[in-house]
Design a protein that fits this description.
- The protein has ten helices and no strands.
- About 5% of the residues have low confidence.
- The protein is an all-alpha fold.
């Protein structure tokens, strides 16, 4: 008479399944990789394999999450999500908030919410898409929150001031700036941005 062997309590007879991949974390890693490569190469020269290698995933997984390269870069060239976070503060506190967002984005997430617009010139026709998205999703959206006849100008000046800070911090990598606590920079630089938002 044969007996069926059962595993000890707490153990499964089936093979252990590999840990599930966190879909949102994986998508974020893919977007970071694509943004990194887009800052250094023309859109046409970037392959899915290069993005996959940098993100630590397979190229088919990129297709699963984004559909194709154009759809992925459509997300990379959009500022919608970044602008929502960048502008998510009451108007009287918006300048310091935007400064903090730029710096925290670089130090904690490794990505500036708006700085990638600097790389638009190397992207050919795709750069035109980036510029149009940037205007409507960042500058124009900010201008709609401001009062006064020169709201559009003040919005562009404020965003330009943020881009300067982002470039000094993330591209020029200013040593004194990077050695200074974020809140100290916010205290010094936030009022400058806030003044541009005020009629």
């Amino acid at each position: 008479m044969s007996t069926v062997s059962t595993p000890p309590p707490g153990l499964s007879a089936s093979p252990i399944a590999p840990p599930r991949r966190d879909a949102e974390a994986t998508k974020a890693a893919i977007l970071r990789a694509a943004r990194h490569l887009m800052a250094r190469h023309a859109h046409a020269d970037i392959t899915l394999k290069a993005i996959a290698d940098r993100a630590g995933v397979s190229a088919p997984l990129i297709l699963k999450y984004f559909g194709n390269k154009d759809a992925l870069f459509g997300r990379v060239m959009s500022f919608e999500t970044d602008a929502a976070a960048l502008l998510d503060a009451p108007l009287d506190q918006l300048g310091p908030h935007m400064v903090r967002q730029v710096l925290v984005g670089q130090t904690e997430r490794g990505a500036d919410p708006v700085l990638r617009i600097i790389f638009a010139p190397r992207q050919g026709d795709q750069g035109d898409v980036m510029r149009a998205n940037f205007r409507t999703q960042v500058s124009d959206r900010l201008a709609l929150r401001l009062s006064g006849s020169d709201a559009d100008l003040r919005a562009e000046l404020a965003v330009g001031t943020l881009l300067g800070l982002g470039a000094m911090y993330g591209i020029a990598r200013g040593t004194r700036l990077r050695a200074t606590a974020i809140e100290d920079i916010v205290d010094r630089y936030g009022p400058t941005v806030q003044a541009l938002l005020t009629p």
